[in-house]
Each structure stands twice: as C-alpha cells, then as structure tokens.
Write a structure and sequence with these properties.
The structure holds two protein chains of two kinds. By secondary structure, chain A is mostly helical. Chain A is 82% helix and 0% strand. By secondary structure, chain B is of the alpha/beta class. In chain B, 31% of the residues lie in helices and 18% in strands. Chain B is elongated. Classes of the chains: A mainly alpha, B alpha/beta. Chain A binds chain B through residues 125, 128-129, 131, 138, 215-220, 224, 227-228, 230-232, 234, and chain B through 8-9, 167, 170-172, 175-176, 187-192, 196-197, 199-200, 202-206.
Amino acid sequence: MARARAVHRRRQTVRSVLVAAASTGALGTLLVVAVTGSPGWARVRQSFLDLDIARAALPDVLTGLWLNVRLLFFCALGALAVGLLVALLRTLRGPVFFPVRALATGYTYTFRGLPLIIVLYVFTLGVPGLRLQGMPPVLVLGGCALVITYSGYLAEVFRAGIESVHPSQFAAGRSLGLTYRQTMRHVVLPQAARRVAPPLLNDVVALQKDVGLVSLAGPIDAVRAAQIQTAEHFNYTPYIVAGVLFVLLAIPLIAVTDWVTLRAARRQAGH
Amino acid sequence: MARRTVPVALGAATALLTALVGCAPQEVEPTPSQPAAASCEKGSLTTKTPGKLTIGTDDPAYEPWFTDNKPDNGEGFESAVAYAVAERLGYARTDVVWNRVKFENAIAPGPKDFDFDINQFSITEERKQAVDFSAPYYLVRQTVIALKSSKIAGKATLADLRDAKLGAQVGTTSYQAITDVIKPGPQPQVFNTNDDAKKALQNGQIDGLVVDLPTAFYITGAELTDATIVGQVPQVGVPETFGLVLDKGSALTGCVGQAVTALREAGTLGELEKKWLAQVAGAPELT
C-alpha cells in the first residue's frame, strides 16, 4: 500500500516535471521566434549584442564595477547602522523623548521623499563648494548621500519589524528584570531583525543599482564606463555588458534573500 | 552654447573632415550654372550689390571672433577670415560691406541680405537643408581651462598636465582629448553636463576642465571669471567645423568654397588662427 503510494507519487512528480519542461520550452521558443523574427532584429542585434565590442568594453566596465562593489559594501553597512539607529530613536517611549522622535520621524520623511540624485548633487558638488579644510574625497561624500537616503528606507523597515513584535514580548522581558535597553537588545531586536530580513536585503539590492549614481560627480562606475564606450563606438553593447555584470553581482544577494525568507517561513510553520 | 551642436557622432562631420584633409573634390561643388574656377573673380560674380561683397554677421559680434563689435576693422579671427576670402575673390577692403543679420535668420530658409555670412556656424546636415556652406574655415579645437589659482594655470606643454586631475563631459571629443592626447595619470572625471563639470572645477575637485575652444572663451569670459584658458590641445577625434553660410543654391557657393580651400592650402587660415585665437585671445598651443 505504502509502496504503491510512493510509486504513484514519483510518477506524479516525473509527470509534473515533464509538463513544466514542455511548457517552458514552448514559451521560450515562442519568445525567441517573436524576437528574432521581428523585422528590426538584425539591427538590434548589431547595436546591442556585438561580441567584439562587448570584449573591448569589458575591462573598462569591470574597472567601473569595482567602484560599485566597494561603494556598495561600505554604503550598505552604513545605511543599515544608521537605519537601525533612527528606527530605535523613533520607537523610544515617553514624553521626554518627543524631540528625538520628531527628529527621527522628520529624517525618514525627508530622505524617503527627496530624490537621491538631488541629495547626491548637494553632497558631491554643493558641500565641496564650502571649501572647508579636510574635505573628504567625492566618493566619501557621495557615499554619505547614499547612506542618508537609504537609511531613511531601512529605518522604516526596522521600525515595522520592531513594532511587529508583540508587546507581551517586551513586557515579558521587563518582568524578568531586564532594562529597556537589554530587552531591546536581547528580546525585541533579534525577533524584529529576523522578520524584516527579506525586505532589508531587498533594499540592499536596490542600493546596489543606485551606488553608481555617484558617477554624476565625476568618478567612473560600471554604467558610466559603458556609457563612454557606447559614445565611442556608437553601439549599445557595453550597456548590456554592464547589465549582465550587475545581475551576476546581484544573484548572490538575491539568493541569500530568498534563503532567509524561506527559513523564516519554515520557522513560522514550526518545522 | 545654443548655436553649436554636440560634437559627437556626427557622420556629416566625418565626411567633411575626410573631404577637408584629403582636399577631396566633392568639397567644392560648383552649381550647374556656375562656370569653372577661372571666373571666380570680382567682375564675373553676381553679388547683392554689383562690385561690392556683402558679408553678414550678428550684432553684437563677440570676441575673439571680432573685436569691439566692429566687423569692418579686420580684427578678430572671423573678421580677418572674411577679409581674406574677399581678397581672394578680388574685392578690396573698401568693396566689403557688412550687414548685421541675426544668427537664426541667417540659417533660416528665405531670402538673404548677404553674399555670405560668418558667425561660427557649425556645418550640420540639418542646416544644409536650408542653406549652403562653404568648405570649413575652422576646425573646433579642444581646450583645457583651469582656475587662475590652479597648479596647472600657465602650463605650456602637454607633459605639464600629466599629473592633473582633468574632467570633461561624457561622450564628447573633449573626453577623447584627455584619454587620447593628454593621457594624464589620475583617472579623468566624467560629468553629465558641462555645468556639473564647471561646478567641480570651481570646487577644486578637478584641476582642469576640457571643453571646445568656443565654449572655453564663453566660460572664461562670461561664466567663471576666475578661470583661464591653459591652452589648446592638438586636433583630436571628429571636430566640429565652422563654415561660411550662403543662400541655398547661391551662385557664389562654388567660388567662396574654393576661396576658403585655397586659403587653407596656402596656410593663411592656420596663420589667422594662430594670430587671433592663440596669441591675441590667449589660447596658446599645448605641445
């Protein structure tokens, strides 16, 4: 009986895999035929998918990508730290903390509303205009603009996480004799962070695409390098090269996000 | 500057440059009604006013193309070129009459109040639909500008710029001038617009900004008065070209074109450029 059931299940699995493969194949063929059969395909392939130009553009685009990677690393750390801090300030209780709460709230309102490109202009071209002593290089200033903008989003994600933890958890911590800070640190934040890990990582993936905007102040990132190559050859292939590299860069991050989401779901389900 | 188009990717300009460098015959196309070169002389030319050559330009006419807004004094690059062309066609200085024509009107279709107009007109395919152009009398050069307080201000050679942080607008011949001619050690900075680049120059984030010469004159003369022209870079890429404007299908197009070509071949245009742009206007050659 059990063996019969197992055999049946296996057959069902094989069947569903076959059906999935067949439908994927059909859809893929349809897409390829639709794209390559279109009247302009030859011209598009020539100006977007030229292997020689791709090879020529790759070194410069890779050099630019290294700038994106370094910026992403530092800006992600910075934005996570600042975001968490702002979220904590925004969730402080008690009338005495009203100014702090108001400031933190104003911060998230302002920097989620302000277009990143404007913040970047102010930081990378405006601030150096003050000609102060010891002005950091433009990359650091651009990084600050990114951290400030993205910490606005991340703060709200963190806050949502903190507020999603049931108040009884907090009360329980306090009743055990933990201080406010200890309760936050050991009871509330771990649960909050676990719950919002997927959206946090999602914002980090978004940040990965935006770090390159620092290029408006002069540095050459991957997209800018592609733009320069494109202008030189009058061919758009370098953009595709940069695009592929960006996806490759994002895949590990996205995989981690999916894995964390899956794990959180399993935990919720009690497995 | 509104009167010029972005100097990149102009197939037309490529064609023109090739024609110019090779002095190819298609550069000067005599119109069917136009007799051969022998008759390109004062007596046989049908000008607006017989015996006179009417040359148009805008009012005001700016330095260093003209001086003191007086085209008839023969000073300034374009005034000098205009008189050189007139002389080539057999017109004495006293035979030249200047007429003020707005820039836009000169390239609009319709009757013209000049035999030819000289006013930094870039030769473009679009404009060729409405007017005739002579052979180019000027190939736009790339120029390094810097703040007067900058470490590269007053430098005379390209080698002096090797350690400079230079900037340019993305996708321009100016950027090519940095990477192909100057080749500085520090990575060049690239900006979306010249306005962003100017800001970085003002802030001291870059030592020098590369723009074309007409833009350099405008920036240092009108926008950043604490900036100065360091010098002109050797010709690079596909330069924008300036041509004399004539009425569409003008009987003079062939002769004026030949005159300009002859002046280039004789080295006159090069000398005038050196005199009025490099020496008088202070945009020396970087060697």
